[in-house]
Amino acid sequence: MSQPAEDRSFPLPSQIAPVPGAEGWEAMYPYFSRFQPEDDQRFWFYNSMHFPEVVPAFDGITSEIPYTAIGANTARLFSFPTTMGIDYRIVNGRVYITANPVTDPAQVEERLGHFQERAGHYYANWDSLYAGWQQRIEALIADIEAVEVPELGELDDLSVVTEARGFASNHFLRERFHRCIDLYSKMWHHHTEFLMLGYGAYVVFFEFCKQAFPEMGDQMVARMVAGIDVTMYRPDDELKKLARLAVENDVADLFVEGSDPVKVLAALGERGEGGARWLAALEEAKDPWFNVSVGDGFYHHHLSWADDLTVPFAALPRYVEQVRAGEDLTRPTERLAQERDRIAGEYRALLGSEEEQAAFDQMLGVCRMVFPYVEAHKFYCEHWFTTRFFQKIRAFGTLLARRGVLAEADDVFHLRHVEVEDALADVMLAWASGSTELGARHWQPIVAERKRIVEALSGWSPPPALGAVPEALNDPAVKMLWGITQETVETWLGSEEDDQSTVRGYAASPGVVEGVARVLLNVNDIGQIREGEVLVCPVTAPSWGPVFGKIAAAVSDIGGTMSHAAIVAREYGMPAVVGTGSATARIRTGDRVRVDGDRGVVTVLG
């Protein structure tokens, strides 16, 4: 039996030892992202869901801006009663976060009044407001796609003079780089505009069910909102269409396990009209549906399907075989919907009064209403927009490399965004004066040093949490998305005393299977997954949906009942255990494991 959480604690932030060879890592991130002495008094957990790897310098913006937006919506716009925003810190290249709870009853009551008015407006007008959101986010995507990095030639175009534009093209370097950063910030504000309200609705319904039905598992509550199709599944649907087209056009033999996408594309080009039709369909599907990152949109090197075809081509062989065999490729949405309604009906009937049943109906209705947004926004925000954002920043890197400031385009991601602006100013000045940029001798040694630091930091194993365990963990996103509850913390604290052959987490999706483990610490290695294996990873991304068809089960270190890994696993009818905290550390590739998605237990069999 594990000791009570209050008798034990995690390492304090101040106790984290330096990583040999990574001295000076702090310069890669802004001062406000570093742990302060007073942070020892707070509870922090490692956000391996969004940041499973060391964060390069530029990519630090993907924690700074999202938490700016999440907190603003939670604390300042909608006035969530029991929580403010989320603070983040970076140590040894890893992102830790903590929610700021509101514990004073008077303040909770005051904030509740504002929340009911403000959030109530959104809940009451959800469909029309959501339609407006859709227009805004599509306009933002069009804006980021329209950003162009100027070409700085020997002379500006004559039209600049004849049209009396009044400013030269070097002005656009700073303006358009700012434009990218500003659009990214605005996207994240829109991203969280509805999201926290969605998680808030889940939490209210979960707490009602927990009180009314103490024996009910979290998974059972989540299954009452399953079986709803959302935009995030569309890329996978496009792959299934391509699989059918491959069979219809007699090119199915080219799609085999482990094949190289480049070689397959070349072979298709030699297969006449059938190959040409398939290639044309591929190009049509790419925009926008291949703008999905193999990660979750927080690292520049987690490329999209459009940039790297490894993930879609890893899924196509199975889909092609299923089409050949006449199997149904659709997700079991209808079965899940029937099960959803059956479960809800059975629990509703157990409630003792019409008032309770009416409350149940109202809360469940809100959860089902918000569910499509909670998943669909990811395609537009973390994937489509963010793919374009990183492509534009890479284009600025190409300019800096062409001007000799950087050795190669991707080196731009080893500079903080404020440093990129300095490097661009160097180019603006040199072009204006007819001189040579001075950045090579300044930036290239810094980039080389930071690459070495990132490599050194990648070998560090971050603790799942830091600091003292709080009395209350009541932020809706922390609970529903990351799965951080008192029970989770207990599991983490007691893991060293557990049977080493057993890993415990959330029962995310039902079913029990056995299989050989495939541990993936790097999302870019997803093409290694083979048929029937059990995927073990820090966290899964929604864009991994296509490979869910080939694995037997999924196990993740982090994630809650409504995390994307849990939702996708349920929609694909596949067992899953999430929020284990330590699965990737305690399971090895090749281990035979049993995944019990009903109880949230993974057992290493040998």
From TrEMBL:
Residue ranges of every copy of the PEP-utilising enzyme mobile domain listed in the record? 530-600
How is this protein named in the record?
Answer: PEP-utilizing protein mobile subunit
Traced from the root, the source organism's taxonomic lineage reads: Bacteria, Bacillati, Actinomycetota, Actinomycetes, Geodermatophilales
| InterPro entries assigned | PEP-util_enz_mobile_dom, PEP_Utilizing_Enz, Phosphohistidine_dom_sf
NCBIfam families in UniProt:
PRK08296.1-2, PRK08296.1-3, PRK08296.1-5
**Protein origin, superkingdom:** Bacteria
What is an example of a GO molecular function annotated in this UniProt entry? transferase activity, transferring phosphorus-containing groups
Species of origin reads Geodermatophilus sabuli
